[in-house]
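Can't paste images in this forum, so I'm doing it all in text. The chain is below; anyone willing to post the predicted structure tokens underneath?
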Amino acid sequence: MNILFFEEALQWLSSNSSWIQIISLVCGVTYMILQIFQHKWMWYFSIMVSSTALLISVSNHEGGAWAPLWAQVALNIYLIAIAVIGIFKWRKLEGESGGKLHIVPLTRKRLLIVAAILAVGIPLLSIVLGRFTSDPAPWIDGPSLVLSLVAAWLLSQSHIEQYLFWIVANILIITVYASQAKWLMAVMYTFYIVFCIIGYINWKKNGVVVE
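Text version of the structure:
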């Protein structure tokens, strides 16, 4: 009974993928606009867009068979957790910056940690996805996941460099969704790149540095 219900749920999600993509697109664009101006409500829209993207990724089918995009599944679960962390972290930073747009400098130590995570995480995760999952694009999904994990953490800590990591990650994610004909998701991440550029410029121009 449970297996049957699970299969029916996956089939329903797959059949209604277009509607879920539309909801994800609307929430995603709203999230990015709010992020540009560093509005605290962006985290709640982040949770919504990650939840819908999670449903799309876990219900993906290829050639009539269930083929979840496991890297995207893991990424969106992580992004939901990061959004919760960001809600509380930004409350503190908002107080320290006097309610203004806040930027925390990225220290050399943190930058070295990020470089080490990328150097080890990208090849390792790509190999794992390729050998042990049905992921159709492990060598694209792997790097996009690691870059996104790093970018999301940098965002939660209010480091402006997060935008640069998101741009590269989003280019890769667009490739993944386009290869699976998830065109609305590909469009959403294209918007994300544009918003990342605008956000970087706005943060750089109007941000208050908080140590």
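The first helix runs from residue 2 to 15. The chain has a mean pLDDT of 86.
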